[in-house]
Amino acid sequence: MERHINGVKSSESQALVAEPEKCSPAGSFDVNSSTADEQVAESFIRQAMEIIVDEAVKKATNVQEKVCEWHSPEQLKKLLDLELRDGGEAESEILQRCRDAIRYSVKTSHPRFFNQLYAGMEPYSMVASFIAEAVKTNLYTYEVAPVFTLMEDAVLRKMIKVIGWEEGGDGIFNPGGSLSNMYAVNLARYRYCPDFKEVGMFSAPRLVILTSQECHYSISKGAALMGIGTKNVYTVPTDERGRMIPSALEEKIMLAKSEGAVPFMVNATAGTTVLGAFDPIDEIADICEKHNLWLHVDACWGGAAIMSKKHKHLLKGIHRVDSVAWNPHKMLMASLQCSAFLVRDKTSLLQHCHSARASYLFQQDKFYDVSYDTGDKSVQCSRKPDAFKFWLMWKALGSRELEQRVDRALAMARYLAEEIKKREGFRLVLEVAPVVKQRMMKKGSMMVGYQPLGEKANFFRMVVISPQVSRQDLDFVLNEIHNLGKDL
Amino acid sequence: MERHINGVKSSESQALVAEPEKCSPAGSFDVNSSTADEQVAESFIRQAMEIIVDEAVKKATNVQEKVCEWHSPEQLKKLLDLELRDGGEAESEILQRCRDAIRYSVKTSHPRFFNQLYAGMEPYSMVASFIAEAVKTNLYTYEVAPVFTLMEDAVLRKMIKVIGWEEGGDGIFNPGGSLSNMYAVNLARYRYCPDFKEVGMFSAPRLVILTSQECHYSISKGAALMGIGTKNVYTVPTDERGRMIPSALEEKIMLAKSEGAVPFMVNATAGTTVLGAFDPIDEIADICEKHNLWLHVDACWGGAAIMSKKHKHLLKGIHRVDSVAWNPHKMLMASLQCSAFLVRDKTSLLQHCHSARASYLFQQDKFYDVSYDTGDKSVQCSRKPDAFKFWLMWKALGSRELEQRVDRALAMARYLAEEIKKREGFRLVLEVAPVVKQRMMKKGSMMVGYQPLGEKANFFRMVVISPQVSRQDLDFVLNEIHNLGKDL
């Protein structure tokens, strides 16, 4: 039987025919045979994998290499030749495109990448993500995703145990922490009034969400998307370290009530985006209990601290909250994306809130226990098996090594803070952050994000996560900021 | 400098030390050095890649192998040993877990997988997804995602051109078609009344979405999430082929208005989930123009037909609509997930509707053109570079080969329909679909989904996409259904 795919012809019993046939006229295909050529595909995938290991693993994590090779959008467009044409390209050209895509991408695994709330290379999680891509699994039914359905369940149960919800709970992995936070808003609203799901909020009283002024912007985005409105997100003042002030929370709750509005949820943040502050969960939980409010903790960034005996006190009281968003792709270094939404409820609130009971997926006359069909817990339909990335690395490292990672990252951050205190003049340098940033990018020596905060000028936000980072790297950062900015 | 990660010690100048140190006591780490061992990581990744090629590429696409190896949830839990423990596991154990994860997963790339609206193995797209995972890119700023920002832009422009929006447009790739459809609802609502973003919908008139009774369930899920309510999704009757009846649409619009409600958008479906029907877009566009309604087309499944000169008539009128959701991961076989939301608007509606202007990401004093920072067009924060999967395969295949794929898939579907007509008694067999399904899963011979429709009994929904499928495979399906069900 002759088989051809992607323009390269072959037959099962013969060696490959090298002549490409990209330009065969439309309608010339033969339905009698498959067009797949697994040998050509296999050879291409093998060559591409070599490139990935050399360029995206070895070179990208090598401290001697650049973090980025900066080009302006207009320059880079020329280098990449982005246009999509009628004809295809040969394998060798496509392999070069793979090399280029890696070359001009920022090396987020590089030891001197401190620009985002993720960093470093985690080989187990990376391999799990390759497998997830290769097997093309969609996580809506046990039937089509038996392995990953069970793994997600196992990971969620373990995370729930670590949080300390002794009665158990429920959860789901989502494409990012923003969606996990939105799930919390939707569940809190559903618990307050399940009818909104059917009739909408058109005759509802004005609902109010309370959160600190330092919270992640997904709370506002969620309020806008869900028809609640960004003005109905009441922000609570924080102390000098960026933590929500509980008495101020209670004042805002009373304010909303006095206006005739209905506060229905509080979002506490465990690890704020800019300062890494942890809101006092225990005290906030007292207030939520008193006023019967859903308490959600956005622990996307700081949730990992709960793995550490030394640092778990930062999340004291988390066993009392209603829901948690926690991204293992941040401090625990799982591959992007890996974001869990966890809920303490045991009455299938997650399913009731989101179910649509599509008959083509969730047939009730299946031959196995359909409670394993988790798709109706999701807002989406297609959903990636992100839990596998965390499961495999947890299996490989064990809880103890995960704990070590957290302890190490926080020790590194402490080291950096001490070093900055020792260096005179560092505060001055920070006022010229945008220029220093431009210089480090063009040089490709490192990447650190900057931003203003309240009345403070632009400052660099150093994010220290990866075990690949050493004290030398942090010393380098301080010296480099000094050197890049000393003439300013 | 000594380096150790993942429990395997080594030094830069020495060969690897084999003795694992998984159980080192907490606090014993050395902040003076990195813990990364790139050699150990590299070796592990290489071994895992071999497994992926052998098991998830070669074996998974081999028609002689099973589509699935069925085990009940309880059996599979035992086989997988899911528990997460304090200690880690050795590399060899983790590699075996990789093999098992692939082995017990459903082979969605297998020529006899017809169970979902995606199928087959696309090597270019698969490699692109590996690269995206390896470089760990988040698509919110040009600074951190220069390559993929430009590629997304190029792919979106090309898709917009194919659709026929001559003035251009805007767009974004999302984690799944459900979210793309929800983006449409949110934009339509924002255009109707931008104030909802800030103040919510508490004093708004009742909003109504119109869609056919055969539409995807994400329209209802979106209405629930956005505070509109599932009862305010008015379903329009369809004809015998599953296509929306335009006159019935207009009746429903008038009904909503007579109730004092505000219809604000119509969702047309190009390729319904169950029957693959295409709503008559041109006629629906006339009605939407007359009533000033946002017209969205859910072309997640059928959008690919626009690539084909022979079949693009199915989407006649799409150049007139306001927005389109189109999933290249379905009929065009891009890796999961690859879903584009496209909007005809040229006034930055997408950005205005979703922006939150987070100061830590979207600094306005950057040294490059910040219009390339696309993160504020998104509802999420983290976002994967899914466009790259489509870009690379398009580069490799060219538009002509993509057109061939569509033509071939639709020719295959036609062949199957003709064959079914020839076979007497086939309708009878379909009434026992759940039992036949159970038998095919346990045998692992193929996977086809079934479901009821209206008053019809359960029937098998054959999804034919992949160029790897031959006429022999389709004949096999018919024979196998006959054989599995002949005693019933």
TrEMBL record, chains A, B:
GO terms for molecular function: carboxy-lyase activity; pyridoxal phosphate binding. One of its GO terms (biological process) is carboxylic acid metabolic process. The keyword DNA-binding does not apply. PROSITE patterns: DDC_GAD_HDC_YDC. It holds the Pfam family Pyridoxal_deC. The keyword Lyase applies. GO terms for cellular component: cytoplasm. Keywords: Decarboxylase, Lyase, Pyridoxal phosphate. Its cofactor is pyridoxal 5'-phosphate. Homodimer. Belongs to the group II decarboxylase family. This is Acidic amino acid decarboxylase GADL1. It comes from Oreochromis niloticus. The gene is LOC100712040.
